[in-house]
């Protein structure tokens, strides 16, 4: 795909998809439970369950733009598949901050990339809003909308009605629950973390049972206040790679600068490593290696020699934060490329034994099939750019699968001016050897959003099915597949 011209960005992509407040911009519109039309192909008989996606759907209110893509109010898309029929519903998460700002008709709160509008004491009265916009966790009796700076919001699995903040019977006041929990498909255990700020931050680690109830916690002090977005489950270990990004606490605390602008890249600190035993939640080792930044891990596991293998989407520096800030304006110009990289780690010492770039292509939103989380996986699915794309002026415009055995990348060609969300693998309910990949595609040619379903082994073939959505869905961050029980 060719790069989008600036005119196209403002009229097509940014105005419609990112809800940036250009003259013709619009925030996302909810829609009720609706049967989705089949545009081509056929829904696979064994595709039974629900695709959930979460992302920022409103980036302005009262003619004031939010400061960063991360600041947008979250909205959830649910697409349910049963007996060859697909139904969809799309609703904003009714957080307390969202409701308060909707009633006032203006922005009231600060967030990751903005301080609270108005006088400086507004920063102290309304310092930050839980936007519940990053990811989702499907539990047996509820859906959690996740955002790393606060508690999750619980929603109805079918209607997406917001029930309110949820403490999972363990999140006391001041504790947050991050957006990238890991679920062991074999045991049902769910692992997550949260950061408590201070002059030195505290890393809080949580273990939950299959219902989401927190059954075990541990807390460890970190060096300064780093930006920790994700972690990895690898066999019997939980591993954190803490990048050399630190918060300049004072400006963020007194409200003279926002959180994003107060984060500083400090490569001299290196990447700090924390290896945790998943049973006891105790520290196995601490280590340090060369500096890099990552938002996301693909997966981790322990190999036959006892080494921990971790795959990451690795950036050489923190330019990615500036790029994501520019996304909210509808026009990007900062290059920020990450590559799929494998790290070999000795868990008992925290020492990195090798770092290997697996692929010389951009890699973001990497993930593996749910049944392989924490174990060796033959494949990693990812978002990427088509060859020839100017990555400083685009959002990801392709999805792909990396085969570790053959070391080959299979790409899905979506055609001109189309933008997929993170690819989500789904296991077939009738044949466990069959897999599907689902993605939400914004079609800039028709200003519409669709659900595309691929055979996971044939991403380079035509989708097996395309479904239409009633409204445009803003580009979302993360989702999950919840198989039918």
**Overall average pLDDT:** 91
Q: Between the first and last Cα atoms, what is the distance in angstroms?
A: 39 Å
CATH architecture label? 7 Propeller
- Please, how many helices? 5
β-sheet strand percentage: 35-45%
Q: Compute the gyration radius: what is it?
A: 21 Å
CATH superfamily: YVTN repeat-like/Quinoprotein amine dehydrogenase
Summarize the amount of helix as a percent range.
under 10%
* CATH C-level label: Mainly Beta
Structural class: mainly beta
Output the CATH topology: Methylamine Dehydrogenase, Chain H
**Main beta-sheet strand count, sense and barrel state:** 6 strands, antiparallel
Oligomer: single chain
Tally of individual domains: 1
Low-confidence parts lasting 5 or more residues at pLDDT below 50?
1-25
Report on the structure:
- This protein has 485 residues and is mainly beta.
- It has one domain (6-483): YVTN repeat-like/Quinoprotein amine dehydrogenase (Methylamine Dehydrogenase, Chain H), CATH 2.130.10.
- The chain contains 5 helices and 35 strands.
- It has helices spanning 6-17, 96-104, 122-125, 249-254, 319-327; strands spanning 31-35, 38-41, 49-58, 60-61, 64-65, 73-82, 85-92, 135-138, 143-146, 153-155, 162-165, 182-183, 190-196, 202-208, 214-221, 232-234, 237-242, 245-247, 263-265, 271-277, 283-289, 293-302, 308-315, 338-346, 351-362, 364-367, 379-384, 398-403, 408-412, 418-420, 424-427, 435-443, 448-455, 465-468, 478-483.
- The strands form 9 sheets. Strands 2, 30, 31, 32, 33 and 34 form a 6-stranded antiparallel sheet that branches. Strands 1-7-6-3-35 form a 5-stranded antiparallel sheet, with no helix packed on it. Strands 8-9-10-11 form a 4-stranded antiparallel sheet, with no helix packed on it.
- Strand 10 and strand 11 (162-165) form a beta hairpin.
- The longest helix has 12 residues, at 6-17.
């Amino acid at each position: 795909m060719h790069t989008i011209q600036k005119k196209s960005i403002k009229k097509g992509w940014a105005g419609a998809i990112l809800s940036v407040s250009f003259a013709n911009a619009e925030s996302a519109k909810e829609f009720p439970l609706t049967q989705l039309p089949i545009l081509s192909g056929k829904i696979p008989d064994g595709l039974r369950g629900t695709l959930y996606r979460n992302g920022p759907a409103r980036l302005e209110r009262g003619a004031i733009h939010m400061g960063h893509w991360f600041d947008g109010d979250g909205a959830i898309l649910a697409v349910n598949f049963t007996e060859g029929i697909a139904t969809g519903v799309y609703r904003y998460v009714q957080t307390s901050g969202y409701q308060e700002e909707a009633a006032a008709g203006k922005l009231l709160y600060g967030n990751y990339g903005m301080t609270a509008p108005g006088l400086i004491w507004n920063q102290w009265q309304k310092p930050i809003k839980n936007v519940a916009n990053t990811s989702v966790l499907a539990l047996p009796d509820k859906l959690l909308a996740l955002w790393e700076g606060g508690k999750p919001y619980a929603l109805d699995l079918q209607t997406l009605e917001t029930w309110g903040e949820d403490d999972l019977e363990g999140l006391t006041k001041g504790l947050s629950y991050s957006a990238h929990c890991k679920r062991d498909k074999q045991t049902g255990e769910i692992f997550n973390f949260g950061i408590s700020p201070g002059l030195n931050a505290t890393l809080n680690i949580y273990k939950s049972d299959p219902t989401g109830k927190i059954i075990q916690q541990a807390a460890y002090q970190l060096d300064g206040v780093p930006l920790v977005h994700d972690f990895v489950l690898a066999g019997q270990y939980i591993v954190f790679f803490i990048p050399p990004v630190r918060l300049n606490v004072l400006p963020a605390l007194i409200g003279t600068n926002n959180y994003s602008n107060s984060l500083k890249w400090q490569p001299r600190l290196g990447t700090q490593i924390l290896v945790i035993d998943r049973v006891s939640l105790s520290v196995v080792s601490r280590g340090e290696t060369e500096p890099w930044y990552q938002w996301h891990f693909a997966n981790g596991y322990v190999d036959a020699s006892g080494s921990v293998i971790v795959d990451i989407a690795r950036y050489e520096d923190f330019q990615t934060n500036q790029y994501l800030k520019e996304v909210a304006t509808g026009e990007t110009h900062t290059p920020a490329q990450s590559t799929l990289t494998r790290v070999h780690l000795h868990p008992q010492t925290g020492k990195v034994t090798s770092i290997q770039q697996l692929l010389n292509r951009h890699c973001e939103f990497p993930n593996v099939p749910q049944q392989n989380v924490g174990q060796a996986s033959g494949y990693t699915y990812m978002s990427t750019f088509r060859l020839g794309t100017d990555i400083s002026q685009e959002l990801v415009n392709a999805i792909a699968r990396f085969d570790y055995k053959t070391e080959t990348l299979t790409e899905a060609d979506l055609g001109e001016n189309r933008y997929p969300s993170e690819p989500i693998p789904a296991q077939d309910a009738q044949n466990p050897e069959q897999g599907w990949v689902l993605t939400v595609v914004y079609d800039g040619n028709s200003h519409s959003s669709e659900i595309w379903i691929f055979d996971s082994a044939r991403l380079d073939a035509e989708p097996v099915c395309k479904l239409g959505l009633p409204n445009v869905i803003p580009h979302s961050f993360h989702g999950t597949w919840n198989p039918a029980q």
